[in-house]
Amino acid sequence: MKALLQRVGRARVEIAGHTVGAIDAGLLVLLCAERGDTEAVADRLLAKILKLRIFSDDAGKMNRSVQDVGGGLLVVSQFTLAADVSGGNRPSFTQAAAPDEGRRLYEHFVARARAAHPVVATGEFGADMQVHLVNDGPVTIPLQMV
Fold it and tell me: Of residues 6, 38, 55, 78, which has the active-site annotation?
């Protein structure tokens, strides 16, 4: 399972011009389930995200987690993180989980996130979404769990 984290001042997801999910300061989590991923992998990834110390402390050092700062999570499905461009210029997405499995793992991740963290917003799995964000820092961190 892959995630691309962006520390944000604010972020929102729109579908057809309507905001479906929004947070103030926190993390935008672009999430991709790949073939062979399990609920246990999703749980480990979420635990890592919640404890990752990428927010500044009073001394300006990255020493606080999203939980420490009370930030939000905006979780957006992003199967294109599984892109393989090694064979040419057109990406292949064969490593992405099948749509039904991807949806199941995405929904599992979101449910666990909501149980563990007070502010969790989402996009809509499989929808054509527009993601608006103010990247804070900028700080962008790729994560992968196997």
Answer: 78
Quick one: how far is CA 128 from the chain centroid? Answer: 16
Residue type, 54: I
* pLDDT tens digit sequence for 17-35: 999 999 999 999 999 999 9
In this prediction the pTM is 0.96
CB 123 within 8 A of CB 76: yes
12 contacts 21 by C-beta, under 8 angstroms: yes
Residue-wise pLDDT tens digits, 86-133: 999 999 999 999 999 999 999 999 999 999 999 999 999 999 999 999
> Is 6 one of the catalytic residues?
no
Q: Which of 80, 94, 130, 144 is catalytic?
A: 80
Catalytic choice (6, 55, 79, 122): 79
Q: Tell me, yes or no, if 80 is annotated catalytic.
A: yes
Complete domains list, the chain, with CATH: 2-137 (3.50.80.10)
